[in-house]
């Protein structure tokens, strides 16, 4: 009887160990593009499909938040967040102690280098987790980078799920300016109209001016969209420290400067030549676009006509009625619905 009990206890221990071994929860630096870059890889079963999320910003990392946004996904997917070159812990690992104009001028971000980084991250994941492809999700700025990755090496991806898709940064920002100006005129909001008239229509010579316009755009977007749960953006304990906070803040500034450019500082915009209507109308993989109805920055006025031009093995366009540019529960639910419907085979 004692031997029988011992056997069952041993069997239970082995079973629990086997289940535990299937889980993955890694947060670490890996060498990508000649520098150390931060990734988090989390899921309940390493046999599940990989989802690589390309964050927006370009400095708006997601790795430092608690897992609330994609927590439920971990039962069926392995979720990967990557702090891109110039953002979050990747920025902190590679930047000097003194960040000044000389650093900005001598260390420009480029679309090509960051695209290569994304592909190398993908290849690392495939090798480490023994998979053939991953599901690619890109949001806002991340839609620019993810589009470039999908164009350059489509065989690495089951599909590209796009949210808040940029088409042409210059056109997007100009369309957004006139969009909010029209809203302010209709609502007779003199204070905002004065601010917009003082800014003038883009393009701008200073990054600061783009930031001022984006704050007005976000104000209008918030009026119509259901907000995300506040719990989503609580920083995880491991990242709640002065060093990580400083690196996120400085990386956000650095990345934004490289996004929009600043003539006075001599920094060129890395997206000034982006026009996907000319360079990305043919996709060799499925592309599914999610559009917030009240997204002003990446308006359906621009990305729906672009979508109609796309040629791909499969394409779909979904409008989410209670959303704008940012994430909320409805956007995450739609992403999940699409990812599940792919029924990918690893």
TrEMBL record:
The keyword Protease applies. One of its GO terms (biological process) is proteolysis. Pfam families: Abhydrolase_1. GO terms for cellular component: cytoplasm. It catalyses: Release of N-terminal proline from a peptide. It is an enzyme of class 3 (hydrolase). Its EC number is 3.4.11.5. Gene3D superfamilies: alpha/beta hydrolase. Its main location: cytoplasm. Residues 49-325 form the AB hydrolase-1 domain. InterPro entries: AB_hydrolase_1, AB_hydrolase_fold, Peptidase_S33, Pro_iminopeptidase. It is found in: Cytoplasm. GO terms for molecular function: aminopeptidase activity. Keywords: Aminopeptidase, Cytoplasm, Hydrolase, Protease. Belongs to the peptidase S33 family. This is Proline iminopeptidase. It comes from Maribacter caenipelagi.
């Amino acid at each position: 009887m004692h031997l029988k009990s011992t056997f069952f206890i041993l069997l239970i221990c082995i079973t629990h160990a086997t289940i535990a071994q299937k889980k993955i929860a890694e947060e670490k630096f890996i060498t990508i593009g000649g520098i150390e870059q931060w990734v988090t890889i989390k899921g309940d079963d390493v046999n599940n499909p990989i989802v690589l999320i390309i964050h927006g910003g370009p400095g708006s990392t997601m790795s430092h938040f608690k897992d609330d946004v994609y927590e439920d996904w971990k039962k069926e997917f392995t979720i990967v967040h990557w702090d891109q070159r110039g953002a979050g812990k990747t920025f902190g690992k590679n930047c000097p102690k003194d960040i000044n104009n000389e650093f900005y001028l001598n260390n420009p971000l480029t679309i090509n280098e960051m695209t290569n980084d994304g592909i190398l991250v993908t290849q690392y994941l495939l090798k480490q987790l023994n998979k053939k492809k991953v599901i690619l999700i890109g949001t806002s700025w991340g839609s620019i980078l993810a589009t470039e990755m999908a164009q350059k090496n489509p065989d690495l991806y089951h599909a590209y799920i796009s949210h808040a898709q940029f088409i042409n940064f210059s056109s997007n920002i100009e369309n957004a300016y006139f969009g909010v100006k029209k809203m302010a005129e209709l609502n007779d909001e003199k204070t905002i109209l004065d601010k917009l008239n003082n800014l003038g229509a883009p393009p701008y010579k200073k990054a600061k001016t783009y930031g001022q316009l984006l704050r007005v755009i976000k104000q209008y977007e918030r009026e119509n969209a259901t907000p995300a749960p506040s719990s989503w953006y609580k920083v995880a304990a491991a990242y709640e420290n002065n060093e990580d906070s400083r690196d996120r803040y400085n990386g956000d500034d650095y990345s934004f400067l490289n996004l929009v450019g600043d003539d006075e500082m001599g920094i060129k915009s890395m997206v000034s030549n982006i026009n996907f209507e000319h360079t990305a109308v043919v996709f060799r993989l499925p592309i599914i676009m999610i559009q917030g109805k009240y997204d002003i920055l990446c308006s359906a006025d621009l990305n729906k006509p672009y979508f109609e031009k796309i040629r791909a093995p499969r394409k779909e366009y979904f409008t989410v009625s209670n959303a704008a540019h940012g994430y909320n529960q409805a956007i995450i639910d739609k992403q999940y619905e699409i990812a599940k419907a792919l029924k990918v085979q690893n």
